[in-house]
């Protein structure tokens, strides 16, 4: 089973077609928020490195992940510039915050839950890159398909670390976040973003 098939098994739902339809018509917003997502992903990895300095496997994997996400950030900035789209501040959707509401506040549970959330965010990114690529122009479609391998590995790294540090089965915790993620993806969202839920109906 390749990484994308594994991700489809991991997620509780697919991206709704209405999100894809909206994304096609709002590619400027999609690309700007994509850049923000890559920057936030690098920041999250760095935060984990500073917080958990005594975990060599985490330091190694998060260091590599942060470097790759920053490269992706630079690549999206280049795409924005080539398309005459100004990179600007953008409010976040409630997706990441909604997922983090379920994180426990004591250790090591906090770390395990944070890693599981990271796995879901990376898995959803990978799923959406694959879903929307067939609808995009050749340049953007090629770029999004090129991200599938690294994003799939990031999902696997987060999940592997969560299992490694838990020292016990984590399926119940995964299920908590799986249900939360499905609700966020299938509920109507006020904002359209890369990880947002159902967008307003297209007029």
From TrEMBL:
It holds the Pfam family MiaE. InterPro entries: Ferritin-like, Ferritin-like_SF, tRNA-Hydrxlase_MiaE. The gene is miaE. One of its GO terms (molecular function) is tRNA 2-(methylsulfanyl)-N(6)-isopentenyladenosine(37) hydroxylase activity. SUPFAM superfamilies: Ferritin-like (SSF47240). It comes from Neptunomonas japonica JAMM 1380. GO terms for biological process: tRNA modification. This is tRNA-(Ms[2]io[6]A)-hydroxylase.
């Amino acid at each position: 089973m390749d990484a994308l098939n594994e991700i489809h098994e991991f997620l509780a739902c697919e991206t709704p077609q209405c999100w894809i339809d909206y994304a096609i018509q709002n590619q400027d917003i999609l690309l700007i928020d994509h850049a923000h997502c890559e920057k936030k992903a690098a920041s999250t990895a760095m935060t984990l490195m500073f917080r958990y300095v005594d975990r060599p496997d985490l330091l190694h994997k998060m260091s590599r992940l942060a470097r790759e996400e920053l490269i992706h950030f630079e690549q999206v900035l280049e795409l924005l510039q080539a398309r005459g789209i100004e990179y600007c501040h953008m409010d976040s959707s409630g997706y990441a915050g909604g997922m983090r509401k379920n994180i426990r506040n004591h250790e090591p549970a906090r770390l395990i839950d944070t890693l599981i959330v990271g796995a879901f965010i990376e898995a959803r990114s990978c799923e959406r890159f694959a879903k929307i690529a067939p609808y995009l122009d050749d340049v953007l479609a090629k770029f999004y398909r090129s991200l599938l391998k690294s994003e799939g590995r990031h999902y696997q790294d987060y999940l592997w670390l969560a299992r490694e540090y838990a020292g016990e089965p984590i399926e119940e915790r995964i299920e908590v976040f799986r249900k939360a993620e499905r609700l966020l993806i299938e509920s109507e969202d006020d904002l359209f973003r890369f990880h947002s839920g159902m967008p307003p109906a297209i007029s």
